[in-house]
Amino acid sequence: MITSTVDVTQELAAFLRTRRERLDPRDFGLPARRHARRTPGLRREEVAELAGVSVDYIVRLEQARGPRPSADVVEALARALRLAPNERAYLFGLAQQRPRDAGKLATTAAPSLARLVADLSPLPAMLMNHRYDILAWNGEMARLLLDFDTLPPSQRNAMWLCLMHPETREFYVDRERVVREGVAHLRAAWAAHPEDQALTHLIAECITRDEQFARLWNDRDVKVNGRGHKVMRHPEAGVIAMRFETLTPLQDPDQLLVIYRAADEESQSALDRLCTR
């Protein structure tokens, strides 16, 4: 029965029961017993042993009487019940816990996403992770912003380039707003991924080397900006106004697909000239 609100304790109990009952004891190499099982799946005792918790704890969880399980217990239950990735994420959500590997960061583009970035031509497109590392890009984006192939991987970061790279430091007409939005995104990412040491080091470097970043970071603005516009001073094409959309793939939620479109006819003409050279 669906109600207007979710009782997470009851749903957690029901989810654990249904997943336990779906398991085949033979898949776990459990010894055959003389008496037939009265209920399908694994017994609570068996799940408790596999997860390294007490039987009473499993009973209380399945009867919606137990305390909220810790992240370590949720991970142990997910392994014991052999949950698929989506089921594991659902269990963590019900327990109101965060997976230990939630801060694990993609450093390369998923092949299907890299192909998608290429297929989006002639629209400039690129793929980034949550700390703004640029993982994939198409030719149009390289002509619009920068030839990323000429950079070492450690410098292929949108915020680092905006602040540190001599060719892009004054690239944006409204640099204050662009940096402010980037800082607000990084602060949100920093809170969501506290174990990401590379992100922490990036923020520390930006605070140390750029006074504007340090000032904006202390404002503690938090915002994930999924769409907007940027006006760019391109060294070859002149001023180009672009609108952008940022999409998040369901299978790779820590990757950001950024797609640019010209904001007006003049900018579209400038972009066409730039990309056909």
TrEMBL record:
List, for all copies, the residue spans of the domain called HTH cro/C1-type.
34-88
Q: Which GO terms describe its molecular function?
A: DNA binding
Q: Which region is the signal sequence?
A: none
Q: Which superkingdom heads the taxonomic lineage of this protein's source?
A: Bacteria
| Identification of the protein by name | Helix-turn-helix protein
According to its UniProt entry, this protein's organism is Herbihabitans rhizosphaerae
